[in-house]
UniProtKB/TrEMBL annotation:
Keywords: Coiled coil. The keyword Coiled coil applies. The lineage of its organism: Bacteria, Pseudomonadati, Bacteroidota, Sphingobacteriia, Sphingobacteriales. It comes from Mucilaginibacter gracilis. It comes from the Bacteria. Residues 74-101 form a coiled coil. This is Viral A-type inclusion protein.
């Protein structure tokens, strides 16, 4: 019995020491943040494509749709398009602010300070990711209302189909 207690105490001590010493490698966390950023940038491109489609819809598409659907409330649709494009612009602005304020250099910081900083950035970039995903879904639902689809490479607005 004494041998079991001693073994358990030794294992517990080793685990506690490992946990205290293992604060994480900031380089791993920084890479996770940068990788997530790269993924979000692709969503940002999709969001800007959606914004261009919304702008085109507002400028000329609604008039064409009004001719096909006389009951269409184009004033209300313009307001909805304006609301969605503002949300897309705001997300883009938030991403730009994050990129402007993000620092990869950790000179003068301890490993723990760097780990804490990059964990905080990881949280911020996760929030941006969620925002973009929600906005892309919202824009897709709105565009689908008019049977609009965009080619993901979208070289020109000719890819917009009604």
């Amino acid at each position: 019995m004494k041998k079991i207690k001693t073994t358990l105490l030794t294992i517990t001590t080793i685990l506690c020491m490992a946990a205290c010493q293992n604060e994480g490698d900031y380089k791993v966390i920084r890479k996770q943040v940068l990788d997530r950023h790269d993924q979000i940038m692709m969503d940002g491109e999709k969001a800007m494509n959606d914004k261009m489609m919304l702008d085109t819809l507002a400028l000329s598409g609604l008039a064409k749709l009004k001719a096909q659907q006389p009951s269409l409330d184009t004033a209300a649709e313009h307001q909805e398009i304006k609301r969605l494009t503002k949300k897309l612009d705001d997300a883009d602005e938030r991403m730009n602010d994050w990129m402007h304020n993000f620092k990869t250099d950790v000179d003068g910081k301890s490993n723990q300070q760097a780990v804490d900083y990059f964990n905080g950035q990881k949280t911020k970039i996760a929030q941006l990711d969620s925002l973009y995903k929600a906005l892309l879904k919202e824009a897709a639902v709105y565009l689908q209302k008019f049977n609009l689809k965009a080619d993901t490479t979208m070289k020109s607005m000719d890819h917009m189909k009604m």
